[in-house]
Fold:
Amino acid sequence: MRNNFKIAYRFIKSNKAQTILIALGIALGVTVQLFLGLLINNLNDNLLNKTIGNTSQITVSSKDKGISNYNEIISNIKDKEDKITNIMGVLDNPAIVKEGDSNKSIIVRGLDLSKENDIYDLTNKISEGKFPENENEVLIGKGLSEDLSLKVDDELMFSSPSIGEKKVKVTGIVDLKVKGMNDSWVITTLTNSQNIFSKDGEVSSIEMRINNEYVFESDEISKSISSYIPSDLDIVNWKEDNESLLDALSGQKTSSITIQVFIIISVTMSIAGVLAISVIQKSKQIGILKAMGIRNRSAASIFILQGLIFGVVGALSGGILGITLFKIFTVMVKTSDGSPLVPGNMYYGFILMSIVISILAAVLASIIAAKKSLKLDPIDIIRNN
Structure:
């Protein structure tokens, strides 16, 4: 095997232009494959995050009344569903605030603001101030603060048919990244909300987030939860309200796979063609080696080793170049607000898979070429050369 490797390496060195051409072809193929694959995956993540990243992915609710045994239900779900990362009880109540001469609808949301349960990641979204800690303290959405010209430590007056008017203190302003939420949400602790609206020990819904790895299994997880929660409760998951998003994600995934398959086929056929020419160019040397007693298997392995060397060098070079181009893209290409167009996540499993597949494609191409070497008759080759 060592001698075969030396011969393969000598063949590669003997035609530097051809070597550069093959390695460059593989490198460019891998570069395009990685760049487009990473870009499409990041666009998918971005679309998914903007659509469902700021909302409950599974929600349990009751149409007619509040949920009083919510702590028991939450504890049960935590024990049985290891794919749920965050879960909390929520008490929602609609209210009205004055905006000039007109009324503006808001929603007062009582949430469990402990970090381990917070599905909205509010800790990282507060732009000013702090979490409410005392009675009658609230966070408000960034848009609502602008509409009502409110800042931290100001007072907010809202009204509701069930409680009349209520005055609360603004302790912080939060940017929820979704206009509808920013314009209407008033957030307080669950206990404070229960006290304000006289709904002690009650929530209107239970909201959950799923581990990102299992987010597309939300329908299966919902089905599992529905089997052991009270039958009078409704359960919905994000898939039920986002069919158009699922279609878009499916379309992007299909495009990504199509591009990668096309690149792999192109790389394989190109290398096979060039190595087939190499077999013809090296026919005299192969004939001499065969006349000296080298077996067909050894002759074929020389070209397979060539393909392996080309594949490793080209795939690793293309991998480095593809990742570098993608990182440059994430830094250079911005949205209108100055943030990166894509988050720049690295999918190392995808990167490794692309490199390995490209190397295997190069080896497959070399096997195609190696079969030609098996058909060469050493006597005819030497006589004709």
Summary: The first strand starts at residue 58 and ends at 61. The chain has a mean pLDDT of 82. The radius of gyration is 32 Å. The chain has twelve helices and ten strands.
